Amino acid sequence: MTAQTHSVILTHEHTDFDALASLLGAALLFSDTIPVLPYQLNRNVSEFLALYRNQFPFVEAKELPRGQVAQVILVDTRKANLPKGIHDETRFQIIDHHSVEEHAAKGHHLWSDSVGANTTLLVEKLIERQIAVTSVQATLLALGIHEDTGSLTYAATTYRDVTALAWLMQPERGVNLQVLSHFLQHPLGEAQRTLLQILIDQSAFYECEGHTVVIACAKAPEYESELSTLAHRLRNFHECDALFMVVDLGELVQVVARSSTDGIDVGAVARELGGGGHTRAAAASLHETTPEQIREEILRLLGQQDHTTITVRQIMSIGRPQMMGPDQSIDDVAVLMRRYGHEGFPVVAKDEAGKERLLGVITRREADRAINHGLGDAPVRRFMQAGEVTVRPSDSVQQLRQRMIESSWGQIPVVDDQGVIIGIVTRTDLIKLWDGDPATKDRKAEIDKRLHTLLAPAQYRLLQRIGVEVDEMDFAVYIVGGFVRDLLLNGGLFHNGNDAIDALDMDIVIEGDAVAFAEHVRAQYGGRIVVHRRFGTAKWLLNEAVHPVAVELLLAPVEHEQLPNLAQGRLADDPPISSTDTLPDHLDFVTARTEFYTAPTVLPTVERGSIKLDLHRRDFTINTLALSLNPDRWGELLDFYGGMTDLREGVVRVLHSLSFVDDPTRILRAVRYEQRFNFRIGLRTLELLRDAVELLDRVSPARIRHELDRILEERTPEKALLRLAELQVLQQIHPALTVDERLVTRFAALRTLLAGEEAPAQLTAEPLGRLYWGLLVVHQPPAVHQALVERLGLRSETQRLMAGLAVIHANCAQLTDPALHPSEAVQILDKATDTAIALYRVLDLDCALTPILTRYVAAWQHVRPTLDGRALQALGIPRGPIYGEILAAIRAALLDGTISTPEQEIHLAQAIAGGRSK
Predict the structure, then answer these.
(1) Which of the four CATH numbers 3.20.20.370, 3.30.460.10, 3.40.50.970, 1.10.287.1260 does domain 438-649 have?
(2) What is the tens place of the pLDDT at every residue in 514-536?
(3) What share of the chain is helix, strand, coil (3-state, %, to 5)?
């Protein structure tokens, strides 16, 4: 007789609502399994089941049938009290949202993902499989999500939790809100209240690299209820960053831990103590120890953790900010605020010893109020917020936030160890952290790997060397802009890119002095530099006079105590590098700078600034990303303006509302990026773009032409041209510029033609963008061509192509006239360029013309008289303009077939000359 088998669903002891709801969700999904209640339930869970137990399929372990267990499904845990009947062939399935990066035990199948509540994983499957739930079942599932996400307020909450809860809350599922409210705000029992007060009284506070940690110890050998509810209450009472509750229950010591910051990983501490959990919530049970010993062990383990968290240094604007004196006028403040777009400035004065002292801050709000009351000439000291509130670069964001709350200052100066102001940090900097992408915090290794894959070994080592050299000068160095954007796109970190990256087309920005750095590396390694001190830029020419010994040093594997091991060892297997052929021709270094516009559409005024200000002057958020090259921050990404989010979501967005007003050429750039990456222009950005289109009339021809050239260099420029036409941008440049499906087809046909083996040399010799331009204007009359030349300042080569196309277009009717003689056709087509004729002919721009153009290219243009000037002189014909007339007449006669032999050419020449002599 075959032994009976069954499958069970298990969860952890001290069961909370997320675990109980997960039991239910798994039972609904796996209808042939038995959900088993643990021995110990949290008090609120126990009371819930006392009321509604008969509505659920839960059984106790003692009620399980005898026989072998074929499968165990563990929910919201990876450990549980296993029932009898487990054997070597028992299959294990884990459904757990904790520690998703950990691998399951051998033979265990893991279903895990980063969501706030484990119940969410199961509700998503219920939705997918369209499994119906009753009102009571929906209420329990909703309790599970609410409890483990703090009603969607905990940091681990995801949009998936919200979506799952929204599905449960739909009217047809009938969630009971009164039941939710009662059990989510379940009152404490007398024993719980007593223990909570003991824990409050015996709480000890510790500082852990800017984080407040509470360890509360108590002895409660008679206590029988669950502790997790007390942990929640205690953390809220102390408003701490992390809490460790250590309770001696007699037979064991129970540790319950909670954290509200990524800087304190309570799960890691619990695992070292023999327990488990995740970053924000964990627990452990220990035997043969005391709460005091456990407290010391917790402190030791916390000391070993890398409490990497966001500091003021990462979000501040580095560099001395614009500062005001107390006796300057409010009008002066208003002018500078408009110029730089700042919301406030520190107010400083020097004391008797000549040391700079912070007196307060003056904000736009106070300045505007003073001006509105006619007090623009009043001194700043009358309206500033007085005080000496500062932070240091190493301070945590939590400390910064607390300082802002206490002072109500929106701009806080950042000072060094000597109290010297070295930067500023604002409320806006804090708010932008909300838009940060948590998944990008630990991408250094991924970024480094991508750099190594993309760059040649010499280029990779060169960037490392630059980082080390800059570090020695106490500067900071970054690659910024398009290179970083394309690195992320083509590296697969967001969308799959569709453009190759130009590994050498990178902007290297130095927060310091780029010219001084260029002079330093020239002294170290040779080469030549070209400096523009006014703009703080320097070009390092590496293909000139770089000493061979210096090359070997420059490209040797970089070893630095602060350079991550991943970057130091990345090139271990690469071949040696010692040839100058592996170096780029040059590198451009730019001093981090800021800029402001004195009037719309004019070029900006530039001043030295920080990397944050340098990025703020750029066109779109996706171009504001910076990649650090300093050894201690190698591969770190800076994202002050939401560029990572916009890359992920595929949005082109300007940084501020006057962006297109300041520089209307950004209109063309926005469309180019949108179409290149298959992104979309953000709604607000699109509104601003439409409002600024008319300002293109005030932009210089060269700048408009440059942007159009960049569009025509795209892989499929017709996409951007169609979008520009849709937005009325092309028409604003000139009304005759139109795009239709016929043009789109011709662009594609041109690319196909040039990719083939039989592409005409007349076309392959030309830049593709110029040929595209020819197709765009091919059917326009000469007057339009001339207007476009003046509007865009077109280059002479482009003008020649346009003139050739205009000749053909203007004479279409005559060239297709059946009565036209070949000589007449040749007389017209000789005035067109070879490129214009080839473009017209091979793309069949006018099917009636194609046979004529083909005959011209194949035969007619090659017809020439056998006679030349010397032959005419030998015939006794005097030199003069008549030679040209004779040769043209002979060629025409040959083309038209009225003569065909050299003798006939001679007779015709003599006849023409004789007629003249008469």
Answers:
(1) 3.30.460.10
(2) 899 999 988 888 888 899 887 88
(3) 45, 15, 35
